[in-house]
Amino acid sequence: MGAKFSAPTGRRPQLLLVDDDALLRSMALRTLRHAGFDVTEADSGEAALASFAASPSELVLLDVMMEGIDGFETCRRLRQLPAGAEVPVLMLTGLDDTGSIEQAYQAGATDFITKPIHWGLLSHRIRYALRSAEARVVQERSRVSLLRAQRLAHMGNWEFDGEGHMACSEELAHIFGAPEDAMQCASPEDFLARVASADRERVARARSAAAFEGIPYQLTFTIERFDGARRTVSEHAAPLRDALGRLVGVEGITQDITERIEAERQVRQLALYDGLTGLPNRQFFLEMVDSALQRHGAGRANAGLCAVLHLDLVQFRSINDALGRDGGDRVLRVVAERLQAGTRSRDLMALNQSAPPNAVVARIAANGFMLMLGDLGQHAHAGQAAERLIRAVERPILFDGRDVVLTAAIGIAVHPRDGSGAAELAAHAEQALYAAKRAGRSQYRYFDEGLNAVARERLERESELRHGIEQGQLRLHFQPKVDATTRRVVGVEALVRWQHPRLGLVMPGDFIALAEETGLIQPLTDWVLEAACEALAHWPPEVAVSVNIAAPSFAGADLGERLDALVARHGLQPGRLVLEVTESMLMSDTTAGIARLHELREHGYLLSLDDFGTGYSSLSHVKRFPLHELKIDRAFVRDLYSDGKDRALVASIITLARLLDLQVVAEGVETEQQAAILCELGCTVHQGYLYARPLPEPALLALLGAALPPAATRPGPPPVPPT
C-alpha cells in the first residue's frame, strides 16, 4: 500500500465508492482509508446519486456492472447534478474491450481502472486524479480571474497562426461587439475589417510584419464595432515561434482605451482651453504661435509675414454691470464666435491670394483676446484684418430685446520685425494696444510707429472713399464695344470714376484696390449696377451694358434675386445686362463658381469672362463655364504685331471661343495694325482707344446707332490708358 495521503489543508480527501459487490467494497474501504482517504460507500447507482446529492465527494469510484442502473447511466446522471459536472469519476470495470472504454468516456468518466484491481496502485491513481482535478480547478479560477481582469481593463487577447485560424478571448469579442457566431468562426480578416478605413492599411502592415518578419508592434487606432459604435483601441502584438524558433503566428492584446482618451481630452481641454468660450488660453496660444513660427522660419522661401493681434473690449466692466455676470458671459461667447468667423472670412483670405492666412484665436483675459494671423502678404494686411475685426465686434448684439454695442481696440506686432518669439510678439502687441486705446475709440496701432503712419494714411483714404460712395461722388463712363467690320457700337462696358472734391476725376486704378482691401468693393459694385441699369433704361433696346462683378458680390447667396429686383425696378430684360467675371474669381472655388454661373444664366443674364488668359484656368474648366463671351486681355493684344507667342495665343483663344460658340472681344485695341490682325484671326468685336475712350453718357449716346468715323479723324488716345 502507498503512503497515507493528506490534503494541503490537513483535511482527508472525501471519496465515494460505488459497487454492488460487498467483498470488493470491504477490501477497497480498508485500502483507501489506510491510505488517508475518507470513504463513503454505496451499493447501487441510485444510492450513489442520493448520497452525492446530499454530500458531494471529491472523487467517485464507480463500478460499471451493477444491479439497477449500471455505472454508465449513473455517471451520466451524476454529471447532471450541480456539483457533479467537474468531479473526477474513475470507472471500475472488468470489461477490457475498447467499446466499453469508449462508452465509459462518453458517459463522462475521467479515467478507468480494470479488474482485478491492483490495490497498491489504486491510491496512486486516485491521488493523480485528485491532483489533476485540483489543477483544473486552479486553471479555471485563473481563467475566470483573467476574464474578470480583462473585463475590468477592457482588454482582450488573441492569436492567429500562419493558416489564418484565429482564437480570441471573450473580452475581445465584447470590445468589438461581436455576436457569438462571429466569434466562433473569426478570422484575422474579419477583425481587420472592423478597423476604421483610415487606419486599416497601417494595422494590416504591422500585423503582416509581425507574422512574416517577426517584428512586434504597438499601435493605437479606431475600430467600428458590429453595432456601429466607434471606439479607440491600443494593440500590442508579438510573433509566435515554435521550439525551433520558426514563426508560426502572432499573439496580441487589444485594449479599449476610448474612455482614457476622452478623459485625457477633457484634461487637456481644461488645461489648454478657456472654459467659457472654448478658445485656446494664453499658455496654449503662445505654444501654438511658437510652433507656427518655427514652421514659418524653416526655410519656406515664399513664406509671408505673421502677426500677433491683442484685442481688448474697451470698458467691458459696464456691460457686466448692466447685464450681470451671466449676461456678460453670453456677450463674450458671441464676440469669440465673431472673431473666429472674422479670421475665416472670404475678405480676410483675399488679402493674400497666393497664401490664404491661417489664424488662431485665443482668450487670454477677462475681456482680452489674442490672434495670430499667418502668411500675410504685407504689413498692411494685419491692419486691414484689425479693421474688420473691430467692425465685427461693434455690430450690435441683441440681448433680451435690446442692442448691446461694444468697442474694441487692437495692438499689432508683426513677425519678424517686432519679435522672433511668441512671448516677445505678445508683449509688443500689448504695448501697441495701450497706444490704440490712447488714440481713441475703435482704433488699432502697430508696435512699429512707421507702420502706424502708413495705416493712418490708408485709413484716411478709406474714409474718403466711403464718404465718396455715400455722397454721390462716383461717376459712370462707358466704353463702346465695336464691330470692326461695320464700325458700329454693339455693346458698352460701364467703368466707374471717382469725382474727388480735391483731386478731381480719379481713375479706378487708383481706388479699386483700396475698395477691395477695405470691403467697400461690394457697395461700390452695387452702385455701378444701379447706375448702369438706370442709364440703360433710356437707351435703345438692342444695346446691352457690361458690368464687372466683384468677388464678394459674386459670392453672395442672394445675387440672383438682387439682380432680378434691380432690372425689374428699371423695367429691363435680364439679357440687356452682361455680367463680367474674372478667371481668378472662378478658379478660387471652381465648383461654386460654375454653380453660380448656371444660376445667373438661368435668370437670363449674359455672362462674360474678363481678362481671359491671365487667370490660369485650363481649357477643361472653360468648357464647363456656361458663358456667352470671352474677353482677350489687353496684355496679349498690345504686342500682336511683334510677338509671335502672343499672336499664337490669341489665335488659340479665338479658335476656342468659336468651338464653344462664344463671342470673343479683344480689349485694349489701339492701332489699326492690331485691329487688322485680330480681324484676320477671326475676332471682329473690339474695345479700345482706336475706336473710343470711355465716355460720359451724353457723348456715348451720340455714337449709338451710327458708324464711327475713321481713327485718323478722331482725337488720339491719351498717353496712359485707364484701367
Detail the topology: elements first, then pairings:
Blueprint lengths: L13 E5 L3 H13 L3 E5 L2 H10 L4 E5 L7 H10 L8 E5 L4 H10 L3 E4 L4 H35 L1 E7 L4 E3 L1 H7 L3 H5 L3 H6 L3 H17 L3 E8 L5 E12 L5 E10 L1 H15 L9 H15 L8 E9 L3 H28 L1 H4 L9 E7 L2 E9 L2 H16 L2 E3 L2 E3 L3 E8 L6 H18 L4 E3 L2 H22 L3 E10 L4 E13 L3 E3 L5 H7 L2 H16 L8 E4 L2 H5 L3 H11 L7 E6 H5 L2 H13 L3 E7 L6 H6 L4 E4 L1 H4 L6 H16 L3 E5 L4 H10 L3 E3 L9 H7 L20
Parallel strand pairs: 1-2, 1-3, 3-4, 4-5, 16-17, 19-21, 21-22, 22-23, 23-24, 24-25, 25-26
Antiparallel strand pairs: 6-7, 6-10, 8-9, 9-10, 11-13, 11-16, 12-13, 14-15, 18-19, 18-26, 19-20
Pfam families: EAL, GGDEF, PAS_3, Response_reg
Keywords: Phosphoprotein
Protein name: Two-component system response regulator
Report what the structure shows.
There is one protein chain. This protein has 723 residues and is an alpha/beta fold. The protein has 27 helices and 26 strands. The strands form five sheets. The protein has an eight-stranded mixed β-barrel with strand order 18-19-21-22-23-24-25-26, surrounded by four helices. Strands 2-1-3-4-5 form a five-stranded parallel sheet, with helices on both faces. Helix 2 (45-54) packs parallel to helix 3 (71-80) and helix 12 packs across helix 14. The chain is elongated.
